[in-house]
Amino acid sequence: MSILTKRKIYYLLQTAVCIALAAWLSISAIAVYREGAARKAENPLESIYTPEIVAEKAAPMAPLFLAGLVLLITGIVMSVKDGSVGREKNLFRKTKASQAMLKGEKETGGAFGHRAADPPKKTGVLQAVIIAAAIVFIIAGVLNGSAGDVLYKAITICTECVGLG
Hints:
This protein is mainly alpha-helical. It has one domain. 73% of the residues lie in helices and 0% in strands. α3 (62-82) runs antiparallel to α5. The longest helix is centred in the N-terminal third of the chain and has 40 residues, at 3-42.
């Protein structure tokens, strides 16, 4: 199987997971609102959104969310492995270097001492390290309970701005 075919399959899987997750989140948000609105109709002092209801509706999405993370990490590894990271950014430089070669001019060193056509070597590794650190910090925040608090406050602020809560 060629790299192009693997990449197409990867993009299709990533797209499907993203669309499914977005749809599921939308449906869950509507369900949480309806359930909270019904509860608020019975008791006007009660909040529409509670952390318990949000957690109950969000828990079934965990496998799909983890699948998205696995696909994200797979994409990063694929990009680093085949050296395609950073190529898009250097398209102008490559074109400029190609034009200089066509004109017969001598190519000079780039901004960091390498030729203008050379892609940066450590961009993919740096991206992978930053994403890994972000994942570690997100997991740490979820484990200490901060994610629920942030979600609850975000929902409360959002509904107050719109005038629902």
